[in-house]
Amino acid sequence: MRLSQITGIDLAINYWGSPWIAHPIASFQFTDAPPLCFSIEIRKKLGRTYSTIGGLYRQFELIYIVADERDVIRLRTNYRKEDVYLYRTTVSPVNARERFLEYIHPLNALRNKPRWYNAITTNCTTSIRTQHPANERVPWDWRILLNGKGDELLYERHAIVTGGLPFAELRTRSLIDTRARAA
After folding, report:
1. What are the CA-CA distances from residue 96 to residues 5, 65, 89, 103, 137 (Å)?
2. Could you state, in order of their start, the residue ranges of all structural domains in the chain?
3. If you ran DSSP here, which 8-state letter would residue 5 be given?
4. Quick one: which of 47, 83, 145, 152 is 20 to 30 A from 15 by CA?
5. What phi, psi does 127 have (nearest 5°)?
6. To which H or E segment does residue 104 belong?
7. How many whole angstroms separate alpha carbon 18 and alpha carbon 45?
8. What is the DSSP annotation of 130-178?
9. pLDDT for the residue 54
10. 155 near 141, Cβ under 8 Å?
């Protein structure tokens, strides 16, 4: 994999319960390698489950999972039986390379200085936003926190490829569960 070979970013949005809460996974596309995903998550201790209350009070460390796209998606669709929607973003190759480094730098920084996950301020979505330089961050919107509606926000901001489709139809076509299970 070479940074110069990044061509774009796809965004997987994973739902496991409520339509209001989801988990975003950035998938970097390469000309010379399979897609590579970044997923910002909590570090679970053996036998411990996630709790929203615990997510507010320094109960979980923040981690970045870097993995093959098939592994990340199929874990959710095939084993957890969760819904995953996959969208192509409108990010240019040059900006995709910058976004890739925005994942690498905080990931490497965690080695020397661990960070706490916080369900509101440092979660899987807000951490993506705060990776960008402050002057380049997208304006705040309630759908950043209630990220199950994040795809709608991206649609409105022209951040995903729509093919001219209305949002509802694009969303229906973006559900990849059946295709992922067959892969």
Report:
1. 10, 18, 10, 11, 15
2. 3-182
3. G
4. 47
5. -65, -35
6. helix 93-112
7. 24
8. HHS-GGGPPPP-HHHHSGGGHHHHHHHTT-B--TT--HHHHHHHHB-HH
9. 82
10. no
